[in-house]
UniProtKB/TrEMBL annotation:
Residues annotated as domain Phytochrome chromophore attachment site: 147-304
Keyword match Signal: no
Listed EC numbers: 2.7.13.3
Enzyme class: transferase
Lineage: Bacteria, Pseudomonadati, Bacteroidota, Flavobacteriia, Flavobacteriales
Organism for this UniProt entry: Flavobacterium alkalisoli
Protein name stated in the entry: histidine kinase
Classification via PANTHER family: PAC DOMAIN-CONTAINING PROTEIN (PTHR43304:SF1), PHYTOCHROME-LIKE PROTEIN CPH1 (PTHR43304)
Pfam families according to UniProt: GAF (PF01590), HATPase_c (PF02518), PAS_2 (PF08446), PHY (PF00360)
Annotated family: In the N-terminal section; belongs to the phytochrome family.
Gene Ontology molecular function, alphabetical: phosphorelay sensor kinase activity; photoreceptor activity
Keywords annotated in UniProt: Chromophore, Kinase, Phosphoprotein, Photoreceptor protein, Receptor, Sensory transduction, Transferase
Length: 756
């Protein structure tokens, strides 16, 4: 049987450390030994090379055998019983006797293996009363602290009491995973690290991902010699995923980093909050130090306690802040907008600033700026609002560092480093913006963060200098807290509704005034129309009377004079006809309250009787098919069809006798593809002179004539009057024609629902 180790021998350096496969090193630390058994048959498929040192059995004699064949039935029964419990593996320790020696084992499942990590049970075993004392300690933390920072400080001190490490730090990450020593308990003779910041490069991405999976990591001696893991050589690439392993060998880059810090041993506990790596409990010792597995779990409990309290403490702090902002909101929301003066009153309200603890505020509405407190000038506000309107697509945004978005505004960042922006409409740049000035602050870094990698005679290495390095941060405000952001959004929404109501009210008032003015103007026009047309008819009648009398009584009138008098009389007749038509057109109003059911067949028969003299004179024929019943005003419909039939006869061809055909579609039809209503369609067709199709719409315009008044008498109002009558019946009228052949007028009357 050939046996091989699975040590990962890929060369790792600082140029490729981000891709380092730290979860499969193929080796472990020497303070325990490792077995990996198949989950189905419990056959040992991996074994660390130091098994002989702990149990006196070489790895060659263990690989390929089952647990019971190597350690006996009691061992495998204990292991199976532990695994069968409905608990997360590694949450508790498994006590096993292996080859007559007692071990505390951590067991976890990975892929198709149970990985067993065994450490001697005799190292620093804790007292039986330890659990009670620790529980009492955690309860004490809850009662003795009010803020998260105070709690973290007590946990740092408590963890150092439990573990005995020289330094215990609560390490908190920012949004970019730069770290800050948030709380610390340290040996008195050592330099404190409290408040120092560390760049995100100190903990690479793949290391942070492992901290999310494996909540506890220990290095007992940074100078350890890695122990290889062996497996049976079956000709394939065998790797063992040690992501959840306690004994997993550490990255050589990290070991070098610890050497540079002068650290001899470490214990790291992950702090997970809302499924993200919030921070770490980082324990440092300046000489080798091992910690018994049960004490590690006790230390891990301290970490669990912190993470359980993060939400509570932050919510308490947010609650206090939200009470203050809510109080300001209650006061400012009572200000009602009625005009421009209201905006001035609004921005001058101190509660508008207090609702998100801002130093300035501006409201941009209809290109006017209303502002108070510390703000940019009006033009800068307009530019910022215009840019943010486009950038957010008329949405919202908050930032504590505006120059990250607008680098060109560095000249105004002293007063406007932080903003909360809300658009107040979806078309214009109207907005409300709260402002905060810059908060100049010093950040103490443990070494220059820009020199996280150093070059020496040996090549690239982790930084060696952790001396204090100060960074002065400008053009950044204090961060906006969640209650402030939420309250600002709440008020912006209220303000948007008020502005919409103000706009609607103003528009309503404007349209009401316009409507009243239009009504008054129309009334005046009707009066003027009536007076002018009525008064004009009187002199026309006198002209007609005088001209007729002269022609009938005077003898020997010169031919030219007689012709002039006849033309004057004819013009007066045409003008009188025009005045009558204008009066009819202007007095025609939409009025559906008098609608009744009208049988068009009977109505048109009456019209034909009334026009019998004209019909006989022109020797015309009027054919009437069966026509539908419609809803309308009878006398208007009579006028409609009287005009249409008269027009058809008037514009008859001199080559043939006029024929007028009235017909209808049997079923309702659509007027066009966009109008979903159905209509009863009636045709008035003739065989007259027709017209070019390009004039199909213009012939319905008032005073439009296609022919000389000398050829065809008329005022040019008839078809316009027809169109208005049809419109007043909620219908449509169209025309089609062919020059020299005739014309067809189509009238669409709305169909009743029960007829569709």
């Amino acid at each position: 049987m050939n046996i091989k180790d699975i040590v990962n021998r890929e060369i790792v350096n600082l140029t490729n450390c981000e891709q380092e496969p730290i979860h499969i090193p193929g080796s472990i630390q020497p303070h325990g030994f490792l077995l990996a058994v198949n989950i189905t048959d419990f056959n040992v498929e991996f074994c660390s090379g130091n098994s002989y040192e702990y149990i006196g059995i070489k790895h060659q004699d263990i690989l390929g055998k089952t647990i019971d064949s190597v350690f006996g039935n009691e061992t495998i029964n204990n292991l199976k019983d532990y695994i069968s419990r409905d608990l997360m593996l590694s949450a508790s320790l498994l006590k096993l006797e292996l080859n007559s020696k007692n071990f505390l084992c951590t067991v976890h499942k990975r892929d198709n293996h149970y990985i067993i990590e065994a450490e001697p049970a005799s190292v620093n075993e804790k007292d039986i009363s330890f659990e009670y004392n620790q529980t009492a300690q955690l309860l004490g933390y809850m009662h003795d602290t009010h803020t998260l920072k105070e709690l973290c400080q007590l946990v740092a001190e408590g963890t150092r009491d439990i573990t005995g490490y020289d330094r215990v730090m609560i390490y908190r990450f920012d949004k970019d995973y730069n770290g800050e020593v948030y709380a610390e308990s340290v040996r008195e003779d050592l330099e404190p690290f409290l408040g120092l910041h560390y760049p995100h490069t100190d903990i690479p991405k793949q290391a942070r991902e492992l901290y999310m999976q494996n909540l506890l990591r220990i290095i007992t001696d940074v100078d350890y010699t890695p122990v290889p893991i062996y497996t049976i050589d079956n000709g394939t690439e065998n790797n063992l995923d040690l992501s959840l392993s306690i004994l997993r060998s550490t990255s050589p880059i990290h070991v070098q980093y610890l050497h540079n810090m002068g650290v001899g041993a470490t214990l790291t506990i992950s702090l997970i909050h809302q499924k993200k790596l919030w921070g770490l409990i980082a324990c440092h010792h300046y000489s080798p130090k091992n910690l018994a597995p049960d004490l590690r779990l006790a230390a891990q409990l301290q970490g669990h306690f912190i993470t359980s309290q993060i939400d509570i403490r932050q919510k308490n702090e947010e609650y206090e802040l939200s009470l203050k902002t809510a109080s300001a909101l209650d006061k400012v929301k009572d200000i009602t907008l009625t005009n421009a003066t209201s905006f001035k009153e609004l921005v001058n309200s101190k509660q508008l600033l207090e609702l998100c603890n801002a130093s300035g505020v501006s409201v941009l509405f209809n290109n006017s700026v209303y502002k108070s407190g510390i703000t940019p000038d009006d033009e800068e506000i307009k530019k910022i609002s215009s840019w943010l309107s486009t950038y957010t697509q008329n949405g919202s945004l908050h930032t504590d560092k505006l120059i990250d978005l607008l680098p060109e505004y560095k000249n105004v960042c002293e007063n406007t480093s932080g903003i909360i922006y809300h658009s107040l409409d979806i078309e214009n740049d109207n907005s409300i913006i709260w402002y905060r000035p810059e908060t100049v602050k010093e950040i103490n870094w443990a070494g220059d963060p820009n020199k996280s990698i150093e070059k020496d005679e040996k090549g690239l290495s982790p930084r060696k200098s952790f001396d204090l390095w100060k960074e002065v941060v400008k053009c950044q405000s204090s961060p906006w807290e969640k209650p402030e952001i939420d309250t600002a959004a709440n008020y912006a929404y209220r303000l948007q509704r008020q502005i919409n109501l103000l706009v609607i009210t103003n528009e309503e008032q404007k349209y009401r005034k316009l409507s009243e003015l239009l009504k008054e103007t129309n009334s005046e026009l009707e009066n003027i129309n009536w007076i002018s047309t009525h008064d004009l008819q009187e002199p026309l009648r006198k002209i007609q009377l005088v001209s007729s009398r002269i022609l009938s009584t005077e003898k020997n009138i010169p031919e030219k004079v007689e012709d002039a008098i006849k033309r004057m009389n004819s013009s007066a007749n045409r003008m009188q006809t025009l005045l009558v038509d204008i009066l009819k057109y202007t007095r025609l109003k939409h009025e559906d309250s008098n609608f009744e059911t009208v049988d068009l067949t009977e109505l048109i028969k009456e019209v034909v009787i009334e026009l019998h003299e004209t019909i006989e004179e022109k020797e015309a024929t009027v054919n009437i098919d069966v026509l539908p019943q419609v809803q309308g005003v009878p006398f208007l419909l009579k006028q409609l069809f009287s005009n249409l039939i008269s027009n058809s006869i008037k514009y008859s061809s001199p080559d043939r006798k006029p024929v007028v055909q009235l017909s209808a579609e049997k079923v309702p039809v659509a007027f066009n593809s966009t109008n979903r209503m159905l209509y009863k369609l009636v045709y008035v067709a003739d065989n007259g002179i027709g017209f070019e199709q390009e004039y199909a719409e213009s012939i319905f315009n008032i005073f439009t004539r296609l022919h000389s008044p000398l050829d065809y008498k008329g005022s040019g109002v008839g078809l316009a009057l027809c169109k208005k009558i049809v419109q007043n019946h909620n219908g449509y009228i169209t025309a089609s024609g062919k020059l020299g052949e005739g014309a067809v007028i189509s009238i669409y009357f709305p169909a009743d629902n029960d007829e569709i």
